[in-house]
UniProtKB/TrEMBL annotation:
<dbReference type="Pfam" id="PF00196">
    <property type="entry name" value="GerE"/>
</dbReference>
<dbReference type="InterPro" id="IPR000792">
    <property type="entry name" value="Tscrpt_reg_LuxR_C"/>
</dbReference>
<dbReference type="GO" id="GO:0006355">
    <property type="term" value="P:regulation of DNA-templated transcription"/>
</dbReference>
<protein>
    <recommendedName>
        <fullName>HTH luxR-type domain-containing protein</fullName>
    </recommendedName>
</protein>
<dbReference type="InterPro" id="IPR036388">
    <property type="entry name" value="WH-like_DNA-bd_sf"/>
</dbReference>
<feature type="domain" description="HTH luxR-type">
    <location>
        <begin position="711"/>
        <end position="776"/>
    </location>
</feature>
<dbReference type="InterPro" id="IPR016032">
    <property type="entry name" value="Sig_transdc_resp-reg_C-effctor"/>
</dbReference>
<dbReference type="GO" id="GO:0003677">
    <property type="term" value="F:DNA binding"/>
</dbReference>
<feature type="region of interest" description="Disordered">
    <location>
        <begin position="441"/>
        <end position="460"/>
    </location>
</feature>
Length: 779
């Protein structure tokens, strides 16, 4: 048998050295026996007859070392304890009572066995990585010349065995009893061994983005028991909350009851320590399944705000000066960055949050922590109006997140949900639909068992992933928006109902009034229904400072309802609240002109804006439909047919029927009949085949939907000059004073006032002001 001659059997510990047992120490050898010889020798131990099956298990657990196995039997018999070679608890107990273990190993191989004994089961690739990296540090930089040979020698000696795992394949393992004894004999010098081993394994977790559950459990317990707090903090960033899903019991053990000084010094350990204690408090039986369920519950909707409150004073990665600080002593920026980004988002400073996230992502070593920061950066970019950059960033992190996905984790579902939402809003409906399909429903395992105070009959389903508030709201909003596009009002209503009971939406609440108002415009059967929804939608208002885009969405929904009611002055007030970059201003203006009955003006405006570069394809489809209606009212059927066919084709292209459905019903029905033989309907039927089985079903829906929207407003429609006159009258100006303001003669002003009175059907200043207030022209 070959041994490495340069291996001295010593492990560095600070300034001294600690010996590792091997046959080189001159102790009495305990050679490996065959199973038959092993049984014969055990029967001579004087502990009575030994069950053959127990002998076999002892032979495996002790790697065929009969003298070691006899000492195990004697210790168990003396204490009256049943022998259980596979039990970690029994093995750790009996290892303290047995004499030192001597193996037929060279010094270097003995060190390798002692290192691998710190772990339960590992893959061969991880074993090679550990032996290569750890030995360089422990063996004065010389390392093992042949780590593959070390594995072969340990296997041939029975000290390393192969076990088959259905999910993970073939793994390597030091037999339980031998591993416990090696750990015990190494206890005095375990500190540097464990620290070096942990550093290697955590490095791999940080860079690979994938985590082995058993290995994670070993790492957590080794770091906690050895007091390696900096390394434990790195685990929190490399794995995060999913550690409670992958290794439930070790995670709870590692983070419960941390020393107060440790929690104060390490922000990540403070967070996970509190979480572990809350999970334990809410779990009566500490089974892995119960711990997983409690983890999901303790990180459910509304919990993130209290567990990780936003702050504007947390660490900014741009200000961190690392210098010559050792890696394990570097300040942790992940938790501080997340808290700062949440604080900036709550303050409506999304651009700053995105900038901070991009800076931090370049400095965080953990692949998972980096992906989380980039997810939050993408969300901030979306709120800041940079949807294309947000989608690009989400696309970059989706692949790695998919490769390292853990069942019950939020990262991949959140990436998918936000990609679907941002795509739906920005008009990339193909991507939105693909990601909504990918957003699978939660697994039954994660839903099992009601929480404290809940009954199994509770109608609201429990979240299936941790930090669900980053997943479900975005997914349901995207689904509702796409349902509206397809005129699937039942689906949109179900999503709205679910969202309205969701505990934590942050600023995403602004989508609920828009969805509710859109549903009302498309389905209300009486004017009162529109009026009620327009007022009732305000109940969704929640906390948070809104971005410009979110303010636009609120104003758009209100203006849309006022146009449907024919209350054009109120619609104009909300339209003026839209930001200059919002192309909905153009569409609302042209739509209002149509409802006001100014058809020539509507056509002129539509012609002006139709080819305007910043106009989105969907807005262009709406402009084409409105122009078709205006031309039909003028009696130009050929032009109307052509424009409406264009609108139908554009609607199919942008995968939204709303540009057609938002036309007044009377105009829409005539235009549908006029274009019944157009090939554009075949395109539309193909695009919306999942919702409508035949083109006839689609056309029938367009003939009946939105019955309340008015085609011509019954209220007086005022020009800018007439609105100005109303304002002068409300201010109490006399005819002479108005003439001065307008730089017109009094006779002209009197004529204009008479025309204004006739438009309102009144004959006095008081009456015209009263009517103007009732129509919304005055507050």
């Amino acid at each position: 048998m070959y041994v490495d001659e340069h291996d001295a059997g010593l492990i560095r510990r600070d300034e001294g050295w600690v010996a590792v047992s091997s046959n080189a120490e001159g102790g009495r050898q305990d050679p490996r026996r065959s199973l038959g010889d092993f049984i014969v020798e055990l029967e001579s131990a004087g502990t009575g007859p030994v069950d053959p099956e127990l002998c076999r298990r002892l032979w495996v657990g002790s790697a065929g070392r009969a003298r070691f196995a006899k000492s195990v039997l004697r210790a168990a018999a003396a204490a009256g304890v049943s022998v259980d070679p596979e039990s970690a608890t029994f093995s750790e107990w009996v290892a303290e009572l047995c004499p030192p273990l001597t193996l037929e190993l060279g010094p270097g191989d003995a060190i390798a066995a002692a290192v691998l004994a710190q772990l339960s089961t590992v893959s061969e690739s991880t074993t090679l990585r550990v032996l290569t990296a750890v030995s360089d540090d422990l063996l004065v930089g010389t390392g093992f010349r042949d780590p593959e040979g070390v594995i072969d020698r340990l296997e041939s000696n029975g000290v390393l065995i192969r076990v088959d795992d259905v999910a993970r394949g073939t793994l390597l393992q030091i037999p339980t009893l031998i591993a416990a004894k090696l750990r015990h004999d190494l206890a005095a010098g375990a500190g540097p061994v464990v620290a070096s081993l942990l550093d290697v394994l955590i490095d791999h977790m940080e860079s690979a983005g994938t985590v082995d559950a058993d290995l994670l459990g070993d790492v957590l317990l080794l770091a906690r028991h050895g007091g390696h707090w900096a390394l434990l903090q790195r685990v929190t960033e490399a794995v995060g909350i999913p550690m409670f899903l992958l290794a439930p019991r070790p995670a709870c053990t590692a983070f419960r009851l941390l020393p107060p000084k440790v929690r104060a010094a390490w922000s990540g350990l403070e967070f996970f320590g509190t979480l572990a204690e809350d999970i334990a408090a809410g779990t009566t039986a500490g089974t892995p399944a119960k711990i997983r369920t409690a983890t999901v519950r303790q990180t459910g909707p509304g919990m993130l705000r209290s567990r990780l409150p936003g702050t504007l004073d947390a660490l900014d990665p741009a200000t961190v000066e690392l210098g010559d600080v050792r890696r394990e002593e570097q300040p942790t920026i992940f938790v501080g960055t997340v808290r700062s980004m949440i604080g900036l988002a709550d303050a409506g400073r999304h651009g700053e949050a995105a900038e901070m996230g991009m800076r931090a992502a370049a400095t965080i070593p953990s692949a998972r922590a980096r992906s989380i920061v980039r997810l939050l950066t993408a969300i901030a970019l979306h709120h800041a109006g940079a949807s294309r950059r947000a989608l690009s960033l989400l696309n970059e992190i989706e692949g790695p997140a998919r490769a390292g996905h853990i069942d019950g984790d939020f990262l991949l579902p959140a990436i998918i949900a936000w990609t679907a939402l941002i795509s739906a809003i920005s008009g990339d409906h193909e991507r939105a639909d693909a990601h909504l399909v990918a957003a699978v429903e939660p697994s039954s395992e994660m839903r099992s068992g009601p929480g404290p105070g809940e009954s199994s009959a509770d109608p609201v389903p429990q979240p299936a992933v941790i930090i669900d508030e980053l997943v479900t709201p975005a997914r349901r909003i995207a689904s509702a928006l796409r349902a509206l596009d397809r005129l699937d009002l039942d689906r949109a209503k179900r999503e709205l109902d679910a969202l309205s009971t969701y505990p934590e939406l942050r600023t995403l609440w602004v989508y609920l009034p828009y969805i509710a108002r859109s549903l009302a415009v498309l389905s209300a059967e009486a004017e009162s229904g529109l009026l009620f929804v327009n007022d009732d939608a305000e109940r969704f208002r929640d906390s948070g400072v809104l971005s410009e885009a979110e303010k636009d969405l609120l104003a758009l929904g209100r203006s849309m309802v006022f146009i449907a009611l024919g209350q054009l002055r109120w619609a104009e007030i909300d339209r003026e609240r839209l930001s200059p970059a919002c192309d909905a201003r153009i569409v609302l203006d042209v739509r209002s002109t149509l409802v006001a009955g100014r058809n020539d003006e509507a056509i002129s405006c539509a012609d002006t804006w139709f080819y305007h570069h910043p106009l989105s394809p969907r807005s262009r489809a709406e402009i084409a439909a409105i122009r078709a209606a205006a031309k039909l009212r003028r009696g130009d059927e050929d032009a109307a047919r052509s424009d409406f066919s264009t609108a139908v084709s554009l609607s199919a292209w942008v995968s939204s029927l709303l540009p057609l459905a938002l036309l007044p019903l009377s105009d829409r029905k005539l235009l549908v009949e006029l274009t019944a033989d157009s090939p554009a309907w075949a395109e539309a039927a193909a695009e919306f085949s999942d919702t409508f089985a035949t083109p006839e079903e689609l056309i029938t829906r367009l003939r009946t939907i939105g019955p309340v929207s008015v085609d011509i407003a019954s209220m007086p429609q005022l020009s800018a000059g007439e609105a100005q006159l109303i304002d002068f009258l409300a201010r109490g100006l006399t005819v002479a004073e108005i003439a001065v303001e307008l730089q017109q003669v009094t006779g002209t002003v009197k004529n204009r006032l008479s025309a204004l009175y006739r438009k309102f059907g009144v004959s006095s200043r008081a009456e015209v002001l009263s009517r103007a207030r009732s129509f919304g022209y005055l507050a």
